[in-house]
Amino acid sequence: MKHIKPELDFRINKYITVKLQDDKTYVYINNKRYIQCLKLLLTLRKEHQFDSIDQMEFSNLHHIKDSHETTIDITAEEEFTAHCSSLQAFAENNYNTNLLHRSISFQLLKKLYEVGDPIALKKFISELKKRCENGHPEQFFFLLRIIIYHIWATIGS
Q1: Cβ proximity of 133 and 143 under 8 Å
Q2: Domain segments of the chain as ranges
Q3: How far apart are CA 142 and CA 16, in angstroms?
Q4: pLDDT value at residue 71
């Protein structure tokens, strides 16, 4: 008889829920599946302090490419807990985009303001402005693509 793992679910706030289903972690927005969390990547080096996850990534890219670092296997439940923790910190800190990778933080903000989260639109605009003024070129171009896509989607509808 096959052992069926129970689903886990963790409510971050009124809009965000994280669920573990079939050993995969998913983020739900307004009770609708939005994205799958794909991986955890975290390399910390004591000699550096970072203002954001993105800064840490850019700083560590060269180090990671040149090293022979190993990955650590963790259970699906441990990965789920880590994703829940990251998303809870993001939400509890008024959607602080420095706490998540840029590939998810702005997409989440955009989706959250689309479903009516009153904090998300204001935060999305202020974060775009801040990242464009102070960010790395990679962040600027990433955000520019989001803005262009959003404008294109708005014009098309």
Answers
A1: no
A2: 8-156
A3: 23
A4: 64
